[in-house]
Amino acid sequence: MTVAATFGPRPALWLGLLGAAALGLAILAGVVIGETPLPLPTVMATFANRIWDAGLAVDPIEAGIVWNYRLPRTLVAAACGAGLALSGVVLQSLVRNALADPYLLGVSAGASTGAVAVAILGVGGGLVGLSAGAFGGALLAFALVALLARAAGGGSATLVLAGIAGSQLFNALTSFFIARSASAEQARGIMFWLLGNLSGVRWPDVTLALPAALAGLLLCLWHIRAMDAFSFGTQSAKALGVPVRRVQAVLIGITTLMTAVMVSLVGSIGFVGLVVPHAVRLVVGPRHGALVPWAALAGAIFLIAADVVSRMLIAGQVVPIGVVTALVGAPGFALILIRNRRRP
């Protein structure tokens, strides 16, 4: 049965509505479910009071949990999931390697180092924010990895190996900065943050995460034809009329920006940019016209679900969200590798 036969003459419209409904339900679940479950009527009444000034009776403590804690946390989780998944799609297209993602190519590690340098060492003298420091560290890491891969002879496999080396270098620098300059309390908080932590997220963080993810999505949609061409190599893309250097600079820049913003807000979260694009590609195919929006949607829902699980896994504690994504992502990626190997 075809998509048109299932959804009628406008499959894109119906699929878009289905995706929006799925994301809305995921956000609602992220607000309702947690350490202290909140009744759905309370959540809906809080939304009505805040958005339309409905004047419904709601316990002020529960209303504060809904609006000031869980909703911004869930929105940032959605934005981070979408941004990291899009980053994986872009990098896998540009370098033509299924293992490419911000975590493996050292971009996340570089962003973490930049953010920690600003927070602990005072780099920038108070004039540079965490996001700016993370962006600088991510750019530096990607440039170093690219130079190392080129010096080693190039190739997508070499780039991944250079990324692993770069990740280890920047992770070591981060640990050194923490050991040298942080107090015991600071060190504990930063190490927990580096594993992925949404506990401190509030509305100002939403105003950073959502625009970064939206800008990344729009730029990726604008360059879907170029990414399709890059899947066949840079020479093929050039032959098809793609301005290779300009498009590469734009896509690498937005990937680095999304990764830097997300890392500065919630720490380094692995496997989202690696597993989600693979899983979506198995469903919608390799064409970026479908892959880009559905990967963003799947990444948003995946990270919201991971955040909910992180709050419920151990009673009275919040597990770092990076631990949850690794527990799900590692076996999931193994299954994808086995499935691809068995293909004729």
Automatic annotation (TrEMBL):
<keyword id="KW-0813">Transport</keyword>
<feature type="transmembrane region" description="Helical">
    <location>
        <begin position="159"/>
        <end position="179"/>
    </location>
</feature>
<keyword id="KW-0472">Membrane</keyword>
<keyword id="KW-0812">Transmembrane</keyword>
<dbReference type="InterPro" id="IPR000522">
    <property type="entry name" value="ABC_transptr_permease_BtuC"/>
</dbReference>
<feature type="transmembrane region" description="Helical">
    <location>
        <begin position="12"/>
        <end position="34"/>
    </location>
</feature>
<feature type="transmembrane region" description="Helical">
    <location>
        <begin position="247"/>
        <end position="276"/>
    </location>
</feature>
<feature type="transmembrane region" description="Helical">
    <location>
        <begin position="75"/>
        <end position="95"/>
    </location>
</feature>
<feature type="transmembrane region" description="Helical">
    <location>
        <begin position="318"/>
        <end position="338"/>
    </location>
</feature>
<feature type="transmembrane region" description="Helical">
    <location>
        <begin position="127"/>
        <end position="147"/>
    </location>
</feature>
<feature type="transmembrane region" description="Helical">
    <location>
        <begin position="288"/>
        <end position="306"/>
    </location>
</feature>
<keyword id="KW-1003">Cell membrane</keyword>
<feature type="transmembrane region" description="Helical">
    <location>
        <begin position="102"/>
        <end position="121"/>
    </location>
</feature>
<dbReference type="Pfam" id="PF01032">
    <property type="entry name" value="FecCD"/>
</dbReference>
<keyword id="KW-1133">Transmembrane helix</keyword>
<protein>
    <submittedName>
        <fullName>Iron complex transport system permease protein</fullName>
    </submittedName>
</protein>
<dbReference type="InterPro" id="IPR037294">
    <property type="entry name" value="ABC_BtuC-like"/>
</dbReference>
<comment type="similarity">
    <text>Belongs to the binding-protein-dependent transport system permease family. FecCD subfamily.</text>
</comment>
